[in-house]
Amino acid sequence: MSRRLKSIALTVLLIISVAALTLPLWKPAAKRFKYFVVATNVYQDFLRRSGLRRDQISQPDYAALPQSEVPAYLHRINSTFGDYRKYGQLTDQRLRGGSVLEVGPGETIGVALRFIGAGAASVMAVDKFVPLETSAFHQALYRALENGLDAQERVRIEAAVDLDNGVKPRPDRIEYVYGEAMEDLAQRLPPGSFDVIVSNAVLEEIYDSDRMFEGFDRLLKPGGRQVHVVDLGDYGMFSKHGFHPLEFLTIPDTVYRYMVEASGQPNRRSIDYYRATAARFGYDARIYRTWVVGEPAHLAEYQVDLQKGRDYSDEDLRRVQSVRERLLPRYRELSDEDLLTRSILIVFDKPRPLQAAASTTGRQEGAGRRAGPPSGLP
After folding, report:
1. Cα–Cα distance between 99 and 365 in angstroms, integer?
2. CA distance linking residue 235 with residue 242, whole number of Å
3. What long-range pairs does 10-16 form, CB within 8 A, spacing at least 24?
4. 3-state secondary structure at position 357
5. Residue 325 CA to chain centroid, in angstroms?
6. According to the model, what pLDDT value does residue 265 have?
């Protein structure tokens, strides 16, 4: 598409989106049409691209949360940390004295505090869209978190944050960085700064995924580990309006970019992209499938491979097959199992220098033989 055509298309979409957003009587009807949904998202992305808004779409007023929300937030923090521990095998031994980078924590340092409690020496939490909240709600949340831990964990947390005077992290233990893209920050920090890098439903919001992983690789120490939960769904862009949950994979790239690049909406990287990324950096990798498209909840136990009857049904299979022919070619070529996968948890291990050298030697010795998939990939 020429630059002129792109400009015309963008202008038309912006006009439509403004009409849909400013005329309440039109909006309910507009949402039933695919390209009105597209236009609305183009408009929201334009607001952030132009600097008129900096917050994330549908971001709540965190400071006004009622105390009744503490149990739900506490459960979310502990569940996220529990998945990092269980599937990422982040044992006390691996964490003890180490440095952790948490990408996209939201407004809370709850997961960071769990890492401190488990023995990490320091945690840096980085969020592009959301500043750290120090409200009475968050103070109560962290008190409740402390009360559920053992004495040693509480001592470590109390040494890392002052909860008697609001919420005041000690910068040498917990540092919260707000308003900077992770891809940019990664170029400013010293190489090999972290032993562990984690994120929960964040990587899909970063449009330049290649640059992001280059930054992570630069920041991760040899022998370090990344653990990321990645949502492969559409964040409700189309599905909440009654469209197929994979409808967003039918939108041409030239249009989709203007819907999501600045606003933190899904970048549409498939599970296959993360396999290729592991191979690109020479990582040992495990990729768990955590949710099936169209199902209301996560799998009870995350799986490396999905099995019919255990993890998904004939109805789930028909759901993805019904849209396959309308998908963009790269998604159309994915297996049914990959299209069924709504979210994943990935574990990437960066080799130490001797491991990397051995791996290179092995590849040279194996030249001429058919290459198999990277070690540990499903």
Report:
1. 37
2. 13
3. 10/42, 10/258, 13/38, 13/39, 13/42, 13/43, 13/255, 13/258, 14/39, 14/42, 14/43, 14/46
4. helix
5. 28
6. 94
Q: Give the pairing type, strands 220-231 and 341-349.
A: antiparallel
* Mean pLDDT over each residue of the chain, to the nearest integer: 88
Report which of residues 122 and 46 the model is more confident about: 122
- Residues, the chain: 378
Q: Distance (Å, rounded) from C-alpha 243 to C-alpha 111?
A: 34
- Using CA atoms, how far apart are residues 335 and 176, in angstroms rounded to an integer? 40
- Residue 350 reports pLDDT greater than 80: yes
- Backbone φ and ψ of 15, nearest 5°: -60, -45
CB atoms within 10 A of CB 376: 15
Query: Per the CATH hierarchy, to which homologous superfamily does domain 62-353 belong?
Result: Vaccinia Virus protein VP39 (3.40.50.150)
- Report residue 171 as tokens: 């910068």
The two tokens of residue 93 are 């031994």
Round to whole Å and give the CA distance between 241 and 249. Answer: 15
Q: Which residues contact 143 (CB under 8 A, 6 or more apart)?
A: 163
Check residue 52 and give its pLDDT: 73
Q: Find tokens 């949710």 and name the residue.
A: 291
- pLDDT score at 51: 78
> β-strand 284-292 against 341-349: which pairing, if any?
antiparallel
pTM: 0.85
- Report the run of H or E that residue 266 belongs to, with start and end: none
Helix (H) or strand (E) segment spanning residue 180? none
Give the CA distances from residue 68 to residues 75, 137, 166, in Å, rounded to whole numbers and listed in that order. 13, 9, 19
b/e per residue 98-131 (b: at least 16 CB within 10 A): bbbbbbbbbbbbbbbbbbbbbbbbbbbbbbbbbe
Residues in Cβ contact with 221 at an 8 Å cutoff, skipping those fewer than 6 apart: 192, 193, 194, 195, 350
Beta bridge partner(s), residue 102: 125, 198
Q: Quick check: 161 and 111 in contact, CB under 8 A?
A: no
User: pLDDT tens digits for 30-77?
Assistant: 456 898 999 999 998 998 888 777 666 667 788 889 999 999 999 999
